[in-house]
Amino acid sequence: MAKLFINEKNKKGHINAEIYGHFSEHLGRCIYEGLYVGEDSEIPNVNGMRRDVVGALKEMGIPLLRWPGGCFADEYHWKDGIGPKETRKKMINTHWGGVVEDNSFGTHEFFELCEQLGCKTYVNGNVGSGTVQEMSEWVEYMTFEGVSPMADLRKQNGREKPWKIDYFGVGNENWGCGGSMTPEYYANLYRRFQTYVRQYNADRPIKKICGGANVADYFWTEDVLKTCFAPPHPDFMHGYMDGLSLHYYVHPEGWEVKGSATDFDDKVWYKTLSKAKYMEELVTRHGAIMDQYDPGKKIGMIVDEWGCWFTVETGTNPGFLYQQSTMRDALVAGVTLDIFNKNCDRVQMACIAQMVNVLQSVILTEGEKMLLTPTYHVFHMYKHHQDAELVESFVEGNNIIGAEAEYQVPHLSESVSVDAQGYVNVTISNLSISEGAPVEMVFAQLEPSSVQGTILTEEVHAHNTFEEPDKVKAIEFTEYTIEGRTIRFTAPACSVISFRVK
Ligand code: AHR
After folding, report:
1. How many domains, in total, are found in the chain?
2. Is 334 in the pocket of ligand 1 (CB under 6 A)?
3. Residue at 10 is within a domain
4. 285, 422: one domain
5. Residue 102 belongs to some domain of the structure
6. Could you tell which of 246, 305, 308, 312 is best to mutate to test the pocket of ligand 1, judged by most ligand atoms within 8 Å of the CB?
7. Is the pTM here over 0.90, yes or no?
8. Theoretical Cys-Cys bridge with 124: which of 110, 169, 301, 489, CB 3.0 to 4.6 Å?
9. Which numbered atom of ligand 1 lies nearest the CA of 359?
10. Can you say whether residue 278 is alpha, beta or left, with left for phi > 0 and alpha for psi between -120 and 50 degrees?
11. pLDDT tens digits, residue range 357-411?
Protein backbone atom coordinates (compact mmCIF):
# COMPACT_ATOMS: atom_id res chain seq x y z
CA MET A 1 0.00 0.00 0.00
CA ALA A 2 1.43 3.39 -1.04
CA LYS A 3 0.70 6.35 1.23
CA LEU A 4 0.16 9.74 -0.37
CA PHE A 5 0.66 12.44 2.27
CA ILE A 6 -0.85 15.81 1.47
CA ASN A 7 -0.13 18.86 3.56
CA GLU A 8 -2.82 21.08 2.13
CA LYS A 9 -1.80 23.97 4.39
CA ASN A 10 1.79 24.09 3.13
CA LYS A 11 1.66 26.15 -0.05
CA LYS A 12 4.77 25.81 -2.20
CA GLY A 13 4.14 28.22 -5.07
CA HIS A 14 1.77 29.46 -7.73
CA ILE A 15 1.01 27.20 -10.72
CA ASN A 16 0.85 29.59 -13.66
CA ALA A 17 -2.06 28.69 -15.93
CA GLU A 18 0.33 29.06 -18.89
CA ILE A 19 2.04 25.79 -17.87
CA TYR A 20 -0.98 24.24 -19.62
CA GLY A 21 -0.27 26.08 -22.88
CA HIS A 22 -0.37 24.81 -26.47
CA PHE A 23 1.56 25.27 -29.66
CA SER A 24 0.27 25.67 -33.22
CA GLU A 25 2.70 25.86 -36.12
CA HIS A 26 2.21 26.17 -39.87
CA LEU A 27 2.97 22.47 -40.09
CA GLY A 28 0.95 19.76 -41.80
CA ARG A 29 -2.73 19.96 -40.89
CA CYS A 30 -2.38 21.89 -37.66
CA ILE A 31 -3.43 25.39 -38.75
CA TYR A 32 -5.03 24.57 -42.10
CA GLU A 33 -7.81 21.97 -41.71
CA GLY A 34 -7.18 21.51 -37.97
CA LEU A 35 -8.01 25.01 -36.81
CA TYR A 36 -8.72 27.17 -39.82
CA VAL A 37 -10.94 26.07 -42.68
CA GLY A 38 -11.84 29.49 -44.11
CA GLU A 39 -15.14 31.33 -44.06
CA ASP A 40 -16.47 29.51 -47.15
CA SER A 41 -15.92 26.00 -45.81
CA GLU A 42 -18.82 23.60 -45.33
CA ILE A 43 -17.28 22.69 -42.00
CA PRO A 44 -19.10 24.84 -39.43
CA ASN A 45 -16.88 27.80 -38.60
CA VAL A 46 -16.82 31.28 -37.14
CA ASN A 47 -14.73 33.62 -39.25
CA GLY A 48 -12.94 30.58 -40.65
CA MET A 49 -12.16 28.89 -37.29
CA ARG A 50 -13.66 25.43 -36.77
CA ARG A 51 -16.50 25.60 -34.29
CA ASP A 52 -16.01 22.03 -33.03
CA VAL A 53 -12.28 22.43 -32.37
CA VAL A 54 -12.60 25.87 -30.74
CA GLY A 55 -15.43 24.57 -28.55
CA ALA A 56 -13.43 21.54 -27.39
CA LEU A 57 -10.33 23.62 -26.65
CA LYS A 58 -12.35 26.09 -24.58
CA GLU A 59 -13.93 23.24 -22.66
CA MET A 60 -10.42 21.87 -21.97
CA GLY A 61 -9.41 25.27 -20.57
CA ILE A 62 -6.70 26.37 -23.02
CA PRO A 63 -4.79 29.23 -21.33
CA LEU A 64 -2.29 30.20 -24.04
CA LEU A 65 -1.39 29.59 -27.68
CA ARG A 66 2.02 29.87 -29.31
CA TRP A 67 2.28 30.68 -33.06
CA PRO A 68 3.53 30.60 -35.92
CA GLY A 69 6.37 28.18 -35.11
CA GLY A 70 8.63 26.35 -34.44
CA CYS A 71 11.05 26.17 -37.30
CA PHE A 72 8.46 27.94 -39.45
CA ALA A 73 8.81 31.09 -37.32
CA ASP A 74 12.34 31.79 -38.52
CA GLU A 75 11.20 31.73 -42.13
CA TYR A 76 7.97 33.61 -41.58
CA HIS A 77 7.65 37.10 -42.97
CA TRP A 78 4.59 38.53 -41.32
CA LYS A 79 3.76 41.07 -44.04
CA ASP A 80 3.02 38.15 -46.38
CA GLY A 81 0.11 37.24 -44.09
CA ILE A 82 -1.84 40.52 -43.92
CA GLY A 83 -4.20 42.35 -46.28
CA PRO A 84 -6.66 40.87 -48.79
CA LYS A 85 -6.26 37.10 -48.92
CA GLU A 86 -6.26 36.96 -52.74
CA THR A 87 -3.14 39.08 -52.89
CA ARG A 88 -1.21 37.43 -50.08
CA LYS A 89 2.09 35.93 -51.18
CA LYS A 90 2.37 32.21 -51.58
CA MET A 91 5.53 30.54 -50.31
CA ILE A 92 7.04 27.09 -49.95
CA ASN A 93 7.00 25.65 -46.47
CA THR A 94 10.53 24.29 -46.75
CA HIS A 95 10.62 22.72 -43.30
CA TRP A 96 7.35 20.90 -43.40
CA GLY A 97 6.57 18.88 -46.49
CA GLY A 98 7.52 21.48 -49.12
CA VAL A 99 3.86 22.41 -49.55
CA VAL A 100 2.52 25.77 -50.66
CA GLU A 101 1.72 28.13 -47.81
CA ASP A 102 -0.85 30.62 -49.05
CA ASN A 103 -0.65 32.81 -45.96
CA SER A 104 -4.41 32.89 -45.59
CA PHE A 105 -3.90 32.44 -41.85
CA GLY A 106 -1.83 35.39 -40.64
CA THR A 107 -1.65 37.88 -37.80
CA HIS A 108 -5.33 38.94 -37.86
CA GLU A 109 -6.46 35.32 -38.00
CA PHE A 110 -4.21 34.32 -35.09
CA PHE A 111 -5.63 36.99 -32.83
CA GLU A 112 -9.16 36.17 -33.97
CA LEU A 113 -8.53 32.55 -32.98
CA CYS A 114 -7.15 33.55 -29.57
CA GLU A 115 -10.11 35.86 -29.01
CA GLN A 116 -12.47 32.99 -29.77
CA LEU A 117 -10.49 30.70 -27.46
CA GLY A 118 -10.24 33.36 -24.76
CA CYS A 119 -6.57 32.55 -24.29
CA LYS A 120 -3.29 34.42 -23.93
CA THR A 121 -1.10 35.04 -26.95
CA TYR A 122 2.48 33.95 -27.57
CA VAL A 123 3.90 35.19 -30.88
CA ASN A 124 7.25 33.88 -32.05
CA GLY A 125 9.40 36.28 -34.09
CA ASN A 126 11.93 35.61 -36.83
CA VAL A 127 15.61 36.03 -36.01
CA GLY A 128 17.02 33.35 -38.36
CA SER A 129 16.03 34.94 -41.69
CA GLY A 130 14.41 38.17 -40.57
CA THR A 131 15.65 41.62 -39.70
CA VAL A 132 15.42 43.76 -36.61
CA GLN A 133 13.27 46.19 -38.57
CA GLU A 134 10.85 43.45 -39.60
CA MET A 135 10.45 42.23 -36.02
CA SER A 136 10.15 45.72 -34.65
CA GLU A 137 7.49 46.66 -37.22
CA TRP A 138 5.50 43.54 -36.44
CA VAL A 139 5.34 44.47 -32.77
CA GLU A 140 4.32 48.02 -33.76
CA TYR A 141 1.64 46.62 -36.09
CA MET A 142 0.20 44.39 -33.40
CA THR A 143 0.37 46.61 -30.34
CA PHE A 144 0.66 50.34 -31.12
CA GLU A 145 -2.49 52.34 -30.61
CA GLY A 146 -1.48 55.81 -31.93
CA VAL A 147 -0.50 57.16 -35.31
CA SER A 148 2.38 55.33 -36.97
CA PRO A 149 3.02 53.62 -40.31
CA MET A 150 2.37 50.14 -38.92
CA ALA A 151 -0.61 51.09 -36.74
CA ASP A 152 -2.11 52.82 -39.78
CA LEU A 153 -1.53 49.74 -41.90
CA ARG A 154 -3.29 47.58 -39.31
CA LYS A 155 -6.24 49.97 -39.34
CA GLN A 156 -6.33 49.90 -43.16
CA ASN A 157 -6.55 46.12 -42.85
CA GLY A 158 -9.64 46.40 -40.72
CA ARG A 159 -8.39 46.32 -37.14
CA GLU A 160 -8.70 49.61 -35.33
CA LYS A 161 -7.57 48.62 -31.85
CA PRO A 162 -4.22 47.01 -31.16
CA TRP A 163 -4.07 43.49 -29.81
CA LYS A 164 -2.34 42.26 -26.68
CA ILE A 165 0.80 40.17 -27.01
CA ASP A 166 1.38 38.38 -23.74
CA TYR A 167 4.65 36.71 -24.73
CA PHE A 168 7.01 37.34 -27.63
CA GLY A 169 9.68 34.79 -28.61
CA VAL A 170 12.83 36.23 -30.12
CA GLY A 171 13.64 33.39 -32.52
CA ASN A 172 13.18 29.65 -32.19
CA GLU A 173 15.78 26.88 -31.92
CA ASN A 174 18.46 29.25 -33.12
CA TRP A 175 21.01 26.51 -32.41
CA GLY A 176 19.34 24.54 -35.26
CA CYS A 177 16.56 25.35 -37.72
CA GLY A 178 16.58 28.96 -36.55
CA GLY A 179 20.03 29.73 -37.95
CA SER A 180 22.57 27.15 -36.68
CA MET A 181 24.09 29.75 -34.36
CA THR A 182 26.54 29.41 -31.52
CA PRO A 183 25.15 30.39 -28.11
CA GLU A 184 27.25 33.52 -27.84
CA TYR A 185 26.32 34.70 -31.34
CA TYR A 186 22.62 34.10 -30.72
CA ALA A 187 22.73 35.77 -27.32
CA ASN A 188 24.23 38.91 -28.83
CA LEU A 189 21.56 38.90 -31.51
CA TYR A 190 18.96 38.36 -28.80
CA ARG A 191 20.20 41.43 -26.95
CA ARG A 192 19.91 43.46 -30.13
CA PHE A 193 16.57 42.18 -31.44
CA GLN A 194 14.79 42.35 -28.07
CA THR A 195 15.74 46.03 -27.76
CA TYR A 196 13.29 46.79 -30.57
CA VAL A 197 10.46 44.71 -29.16
CA ARG A 198 9.02 47.97 -27.85
CA GLN A 199 6.67 48.20 -24.91
CA TYR A 200 4.01 50.50 -26.33
CA ASN A 201 1.61 49.85 -23.48
CA ALA A 202 3.03 50.23 -20.00
CA ASP A 203 -0.04 48.54 -18.52
CA ARG A 204 0.24 45.54 -20.85
CA PRO A 205 3.94 44.72 -21.06
CA ILE A 206 5.11 42.04 -23.44
CA LYS A 207 7.13 39.26 -21.80
CA LYS A 208 10.21 38.56 -23.89
CA ILE A 209 11.35 35.00 -24.34
CA CYS A 210 14.96 34.21 -25.16
CA GLY A 211 15.65 31.04 -27.16
CA GLY A 212 17.00 28.37 -24.85
CA ALA A 213 18.49 24.93 -25.06
CA ASN A 214 17.70 21.68 -26.76
CA VAL A 215 17.34 18.88 -24.21
CA ALA A 216 20.53 18.62 -22.11
CA ASP A 217 22.57 21.30 -23.83
CA TYR A 218 23.62 22.92 -20.56
CA PHE A 219 26.44 24.68 -22.37
CA TRP A 220 23.87 26.65 -24.39
CA THR A 221 22.01 27.73 -21.26
CA GLU A 222 25.22 28.78 -19.53
CA ASP A 223 26.66 30.66 -22.48
CA VAL A 224 23.45 32.45 -23.45
CA LEU A 225 22.88 33.60 -19.87
CA LYS A 226 26.52 34.67 -19.46
CA THR A 227 26.27 36.82 -22.59
CA CYS A 228 22.82 38.23 -21.81
CA PHE A 229 23.73 39.08 -18.23
CA ALA A 230 26.95 40.85 -19.23
CA PRO A 231 27.00 44.68 -18.90
CA PRO A 232 26.69 47.40 -20.15
CA HIS A 233 23.09 48.71 -19.87
CA PRO A 234 20.90 48.58 -16.75
CA ASP A 235 18.78 45.80 -18.30
CA PHE A 236 21.66 43.36 -18.10
CA MET A 237 20.61 42.84 -14.47
CA HIS A 238 17.65 40.86 -15.84
CA GLY A 239 19.43 39.36 -18.78
CA TYR A 240 17.07 41.39 -21.00
CA MET A 241 14.54 38.59 -20.71
CA ASP A 242 11.42 37.42 -18.90
CA GLY A 243 11.83 33.82 -19.93
CA LEU A 244 14.29 31.33 -21.33
CA SER A 245 12.95 28.44 -23.37
CA LEU A 246 13.70 24.71 -23.28
CA HIS A 247 12.67 22.09 -25.84
CA TYR A 248 12.43 18.40 -25.08
CA TYR A 249 10.65 15.67 -27.02
CA VAL A 250 10.27 12.03 -25.98
CA HIS A 251 11.47 9.77 -28.81
CA PRO A 252 11.33 6.24 -27.38
CA GLU A 253 13.75 4.80 -29.93
CA GLY A 254 15.89 7.90 -30.43
CA TRP A 255 15.74 10.76 -32.91
CA GLU A 256 16.45 8.70 -36.05
CA VAL A 257 14.09 5.76 -35.51
CA LYS A 258 11.54 7.35 -33.13
CA GLY A 259 9.17 4.33 -32.97
CA SER A 260 5.51 3.61 -33.64
CA ALA A 261 2.84 5.64 -31.86
CA THR A 262 0.55 2.64 -31.39
CA ASP A 263 2.64 -0.52 -31.63
CA PHE A 264 5.03 -0.99 -28.72
CA ASP A 265 5.93 -3.65 -26.17
CA ASP A 266 6.31 -3.50 -22.38
CA LYS A 267 9.95 -2.51 -22.62
CA VAL A 268 9.21 0.45 -24.90
CA TRP A 269 6.34 1.49 -22.62
CA TYR A 270 8.74 1.87 -19.69
CA LYS A 271 11.43 3.34 -21.90
CA THR A 272 8.97 6.02 -23.01
CA LEU A 273 7.86 6.83 -19.47
CA SER A 274 11.43 6.91 -18.17
CA LYS A 275 12.22 9.39 -20.94
CA ALA A 276 9.22 11.47 -19.87
CA LYS A 277 10.50 11.41 -16.27
CA TYR A 278 13.82 12.73 -17.57
CA MET A 279 12.11 16.13 -17.83
CA GLU A 280 12.66 16.39 -14.06
CA GLU A 281 16.43 16.23 -14.46
CA LEU A 282 16.35 18.74 -17.31
CA VAL A 283 14.28 21.22 -15.30
CA THR A 284 16.53 20.79 -12.26
CA ARG A 285 19.85 21.11 -14.09
CA HIS A 286 18.89 23.97 -16.43
CA GLY A 287 17.20 25.55 -13.41
CA ALA A 288 20.40 25.32 -11.37
CA ILE A 289 22.25 27.28 -14.07
CA MET A 290 19.46 29.85 -14.18
CA ASP A 291 19.67 30.15 -10.38
CA GLN A 292 23.25 31.37 -10.64
CA TYR A 293 22.16 34.36 -12.72
CA ASP A 294 18.65 34.80 -11.41
CA PRO A 295 18.49 33.55 -7.82
CA GLY A 296 15.16 35.32 -7.26
CA LYS A 297 13.60 33.20 -10.02
CA LYS A 298 12.22 36.21 -11.88
CA ILE A 299 12.97 34.65 -15.24
CA GLY A 300 10.66 31.84 -16.21
CA MET A 301 11.72 28.52 -17.65
CA ILE A 302 9.51 28.29 -20.72
CA VAL A 303 9.19 24.69 -21.92
CA ASP A 304 7.51 25.82 -25.12
CA GLU A 305 7.88 22.51 -26.95
CA TRP A 306 7.38 19.16 -25.27
CA GLY A 307 5.61 15.88 -25.93
CA CYS A 308 5.95 12.51 -27.66
CA TRP A 309 7.39 12.46 -31.16
CA PHE A 310 6.84 9.13 -32.93
CA THR A 311 7.14 7.86 -36.50
CA VAL A 312 4.41 9.34 -38.70
CA GLU A 313 1.30 7.27 -39.42
CA THR A 314 1.68 5.03 -42.46
CA GLY A 315 0.53 6.63 -45.68
CA THR A 316 0.77 10.22 -44.40
CA ASN A 317 3.18 12.93 -45.59
CA PRO A 318 6.38 12.46 -43.52
CA GLY A 319 6.74 16.25 -43.40
CA PHE A 320 3.36 16.61 -41.67
CA LEU A 321 4.33 14.78 -38.45
CA TYR A 322 0.89 13.27 -38.00
CA GLN A 323 0.72 10.62 -35.29
CA GLN A 324 -1.86 8.79 -33.20
CA SER A 325 -2.06 9.19 -29.44
CA THR A 326 -2.63 6.30 -27.03
CA MET A 327 -2.90 5.80 -23.29
CA ARG A 328 0.90 5.91 -23.30
CA ASP A 329 0.71 9.57 -24.38
CA ALA A 330 -1.81 10.18 -21.61
CA LEU A 331 0.65 8.88 -19.03
CA VAL A 332 3.47 10.96 -20.53
CA ALA A 333 1.22 14.01 -20.22
CA GLY A 334 0.30 13.21 -16.61
CA VAL A 335 3.91 12.64 -15.56
CA THR A 336 5.14 15.77 -17.33
CA LEU A 337 2.41 18.06 -15.99
CA ASP A 338 3.12 16.78 -12.46
CA ILE A 339 6.79 17.71 -12.96
CA PHE A 340 5.85 21.19 -14.15
CA ASN A 341 3.45 21.69 -11.25
CA LYS A 342 6.09 20.62 -8.74
CA ASN A 343 8.65 22.98 -10.29
CA CYS A 344 6.27 25.92 -10.67
CA ASP A 345 8.73 28.23 -8.92
CA ARG A 346 10.83 28.11 -12.09
CA VAL A 347 8.61 26.68 -14.86
CA GLN A 348 6.28 29.53 -15.73
CA MET A 349 4.97 28.41 -19.08
CA ALA A 350 4.94 25.27 -21.24
CA CYS A 351 3.41 24.37 -24.61
CA ILE A 352 2.69 20.81 -25.64
CA ALA A 353 3.51 20.19 -29.30
CA GLN A 354 1.31 20.51 -31.12
CA MET A 355 -2.35 21.29 -30.57
CA VAL A 356 -4.11 19.64 -33.54
CA ASN A 357 -3.01 16.90 -36.00
CA VAL A 358 0.74 17.15 -35.24
CA LEU A 359 2.83 15.12 -32.71
CA GLN A 360 1.17 14.75 -29.27
CA SER A 361 -2.03 16.51 -30.19
CA VAL A 362 -5.07 16.92 -28.01
CA ILE A 363 -7.33 16.89 -31.08
CA LEU A 364 -7.25 15.04 -34.40
CA THR A 365 -9.43 15.92 -37.39
CA GLU A 366 -10.39 14.27 -40.66
CA GLY A 367 -12.54 16.43 -42.89
CA GLU A 368 -15.52 17.47 -40.81
CA LYS A 369 -14.79 14.84 -38.14
CA MET A 370 -12.96 15.57 -34.92
CA LEU A 371 -11.78 13.38 -32.05
CA LEU A 372 -10.32 14.04 -28.63
CA THR A 373 -7.15 12.11 -27.83
CA PRO A 374 -6.30 10.58 -24.42
CA THR A 375 -3.94 13.54 -23.92
CA TYR A 376 -6.94 15.90 -24.26
CA HIS A 377 -8.63 14.13 -21.37
CA VAL A 378 -5.54 14.52 -19.19
CA PHE A 379 -5.42 18.28 -19.86
CA HIS A 380 -9.12 18.46 -19.06
CA MET A 381 -8.63 16.55 -15.80
CA TYR A 382 -5.67 18.75 -14.82
CA LYS A 383 -7.33 22.07 -15.60
CA HIS A 384 -8.12 22.89 -11.99
CA HIS A 385 -4.39 23.12 -11.29
CA GLN A 386 -4.30 26.24 -13.49
CA ASP A 387 -3.62 29.30 -11.35
CA ALA A 388 -3.91 27.21 -8.18
CA GLU A 389 -1.32 26.98 -5.39
CA LEU A 390 0.94 23.95 -5.33
CA VAL A 391 0.90 22.21 -1.96
CA GLU A 392 3.27 19.76 -0.34
CA SER A 393 2.71 16.12 -1.27
CA PHE A 394 4.79 12.99 -0.99
CA VAL A 395 4.29 9.28 -1.74
CA GLU A 396 5.71 6.86 0.81
CA GLY A 397 6.26 3.34 -0.49
CA ASN A 398 6.39 4.39 -4.13
CA ASN A 399 7.94 1.27 -5.66
CA ILE A 400 10.33 1.51 -8.54
CA ILE A 401 9.03 -0.50 -11.47
CA GLY A 402 10.06 -1.07 -15.09
CA ALA A 403 11.35 -3.43 -17.71
CA GLU A 404 15.07 -3.10 -17.00
CA ALA A 405 17.22 -1.09 -14.64
CA GLU A 406 17.78 1.45 -17.38
CA TYR A 407 14.11 2.13 -17.88
CA GLN A 408 12.78 2.22 -14.36
CA VAL A 409 10.14 4.62 -13.14
CA PRO A 410 8.23 5.19 -9.91
CA HIS A 411 4.93 3.31 -9.73
CA LEU A 412 3.02 6.55 -9.05
CA SER A 413 3.30 10.17 -10.11
CA GLU A 414 1.31 12.90 -8.37
CA SER A 415 0.89 16.59 -7.76
CA VAL A 416 -1.54 18.48 -5.58
CA SER A 417 -2.83 22.05 -5.53
CA VAL A 418 -5.39 24.19 -3.73
CA ASP A 419 -7.48 26.48 -5.90
CA ALA A 420 -9.25 29.77 -5.32
CA GLN A 421 -12.53 27.98 -4.47
CA GLY A 422 -10.75 26.09 -1.71
CA TYR A 423 -10.75 22.70 -3.47
CA VAL A 424 -7.75 20.42 -3.09
CA ASN A 425 -6.93 19.08 -6.57
CA VAL A 426 -5.06 15.80 -6.62
CA THR A 427 -3.78 14.21 -9.83
CA ILE A 428 -2.21 10.79 -9.62
CA SER A 429 -1.04 8.37 -12.33
CA ASN A 430 -0.19 4.69 -12.16
CA LEU A 431 2.70 4.07 -14.55
CA SER A 432 2.57 0.29 -14.37
CA ILE A 433 1.54 -1.62 -17.47
CA SER A 434 0.01 -4.43 -15.38
CA GLU A 435 -0.13 -3.77 -11.62
CA GLY A 436 -2.83 -1.83 -9.81
CA ALA A 437 -1.69 0.36 -6.91
CA PRO A 438 -3.60 0.48 -3.64
CA VAL A 439 -3.28 4.03 -2.30
CA GLU A 440 -4.03 5.62 1.05
CA MET A 441 -4.35 9.38 0.57
CA VAL A 442 -3.93 11.18 3.88
CA PHE A 443 -4.59 14.90 4.40
CA ALA A 444 -2.85 16.87 7.12
CA GLN A 445 -6.06 18.41 8.49
CA LEU A 446 -8.84 18.10 5.94
CA GLU A 447 -11.63 15.62 6.62
CA PRO A 448 -13.18 15.34 3.14
CA SER A 449 -16.91 15.88 2.91
CA SER A 450 -17.10 16.33 -0.85
CA VAL A 451 -15.05 14.34 -3.36
CA GLN A 452 -15.30 14.37 -7.17
CA GLY A 453 -13.20 11.64 -8.78
CA THR A 454 -12.42 11.24 -12.50
CA ILE A 455 -10.46 8.44 -14.13
CA LEU A 456 -8.87 7.78 -17.50
CA THR A 457 -7.86 4.15 -17.90
CA GLU A 458 -7.77 1.62 -20.71
CA GLU A 459 -5.42 -0.91 -22.22
CA VAL A 460 -2.03 0.72 -22.89
CA HIS A 461 -2.35 0.79 -26.69
CA ALA A 462 -5.93 2.07 -26.63
CA HIS A 463 -6.61 5.16 -28.69
CA ASN A 464 -9.51 6.95 -30.32
CA THR A 465 -10.20 6.63 -34.02
CA PHE A 466 -12.72 8.31 -36.29
CA GLU A 467 -14.63 5.01 -36.31
CA GLU A 468 -14.49 4.72 -32.51
CA PRO A 469 -13.91 8.25 -31.19
CA ASP A 470 -14.90 7.55 -27.57
CA LYS A 471 -12.98 4.37 -26.87
CA VAL A 472 -10.75 6.25 -24.42
CA LYS A 473 -12.47 8.87 -22.33
CA ALA A 474 -12.47 10.15 -18.79
CA ILE A 475 -15.33 8.91 -16.61
CA GLU A 476 -16.47 9.44 -13.05
CA PHE A 477 -14.44 7.52 -10.44
CA THR A 478 -16.34 6.44 -7.37
CA GLU A 479 -14.34 3.44 -6.15
CA TYR A 480 -12.93 5.01 -3.03
CA THR A 481 -13.75 5.06 0.66
CA ILE A 482 -13.39 7.97 3.07
CA GLU A 483 -12.45 7.62 6.72
CA GLY A 484 -11.56 10.75 8.67
CA ARG A 485 -8.61 12.39 6.90
CA THR A 486 -8.00 9.38 4.64
CA ILE A 487 -9.28 8.41 1.20
CA ARG A 488 -8.49 4.84 0.09
CA PHE A 489 -8.63 3.63 -3.50
CA THR A 490 -6.82 1.43 -5.99
CA ALA A 491 -5.33 3.15 -9.02
CA PRO A 492 -5.68 0.63 -11.87
CA ALA A 493 -2.62 -0.14 -14.03
CA CYS A 494 -2.14 2.49 -16.74
CA SER A 495 -4.45 5.11 -15.30
CA VAL A 496 -4.66 8.81 -14.59
CA ILE A 497 -7.01 9.85 -11.77
CA SER A 498 -8.02 13.29 -10.55
CA PHE A 499 -9.78 14.19 -7.33
CA ARG A 500 -11.36 17.47 -6.33
CA VAL A 501 -11.74 17.42 -2.61
CA LYS A 502 -13.28 19.74 -0.01
O1 AHR B 1 7.31 20.74 -33.29
C2 AHR B 1 8.03 20.41 -34.44
C3 AHR B 1 9.36 21.11 -34.52
O4 AHR B 1 10.18 20.65 -33.49
C5 AHR B 1 9.37 22.60 -34.34
O6 AHR B 1 9.07 23.28 -35.50
C7 AHR B 1 10.77 22.87 -33.93
O8 AHR B 1 10.91 24.02 -33.13
C9 AHR B 1 11.19 21.60 -33.22
O10 AHR B 1 12.39 21.12 -33.67
Report:
1. 2
2. no
3. no
4. no
5. yes
6. 305
7. yes
8. 169
9. 1
10. alpha
11. 999 999 999 999 999 999 999 999 999 999 999 999 999 999 999 977 789 999 9
